[in-house]
Amino acid sequence: MEHPIDAQDLMIAPGVRETASEDGAVLLDIEQGICFSLNPVGLRIWELLKKHYSADQIADVMAQNFPVSRSQLLADIVEFLQSLEAKRLIHRSSHTVTRQSWLAKILPWTKQRVPAH
């Protein structure tokens, strides 16, 4: 990512579905056809992200639960958010997202129209 990340500028991709439990969560991206798992810490960050918390606000919340320096928490949160963005589970609201279904990726000819003769 070329610019500093601001969680308030991030949106969850429209094709992402989640199932949460005490063990974490499973994220399903129906557009990519891929599942991802989150541990309980990742799930907590995900929940705060859905509430449009900034990276700083997420670090403040996490600092209440973990005996880690705030600077380290913030660095880890930003790294996690960058990872979610790289996997296209989230995107910046200021960026347009090119949507391509997972079916079109595995069957590229479904996008092409062959004229009838």
Protein topology:
Layout: E1 10-12, E2 16-21, E3 24-29, E4 34-38, H1 40-50, H2 55-63, H3 70-86, E5 90-92, H4 102-106
Antiparallel strand pairs: 1-5, 2-3, 3-4
Helix pairs in contact: 2-3
Key features?
two-stranded antiparallel sheet, single chain, 36% helix, 4 helices, Outer Surface Protein A, domain 3, 117 residues, alpha+beta
Q: How would you portray this structure in words?
A:
There is one protein chain. This protein has 117 residues and is of the alpha+beta class. The protein has one domain (7-111): Outer Surface Protein A, domain 3 (Alpha-Beta Complex). Helices cover 36% and strands 20% of the residues. The chain has four helices and five strands. It has helices at 40-50, 55-63, 70-86, 102-106; strands spanning 10-12, 16-21, 24-29, 34-38, 90-92. The strands form two sheets. The chain has a three-stranded antiparallel sheet, covered by helices on one side. A two-stranded antiparallel ribbon has the order 1-5. A hairpin with a 2-residue loop joins strand 2 and strand 3. Helix 2 (55-63) crosses helix 3 (70-86). It is globular and about 50 Å long. The termini are far apart.
Please identify the structural class as seen in this structure: alpha+beta
Number of helices: 4
Strand count: 5
Overall outline: globular
Helix percent reads 25-40%
Radius of gyration from the alpha-carbon trace, in angstroms: 17 Å
Named at the architecture level, the CATH assignment is: Alpha-Beta Complex
What is the end-to-end distance? 47 Å
Oligomer: single chain
What's the helix-strand series?
EEEEHHHEH
CATH class: Alpha Beta
Beta-strand content: 15-25%
CATH domain fold name: Outer Surface Protein A, domain 3
The figure for the number of domains is 1
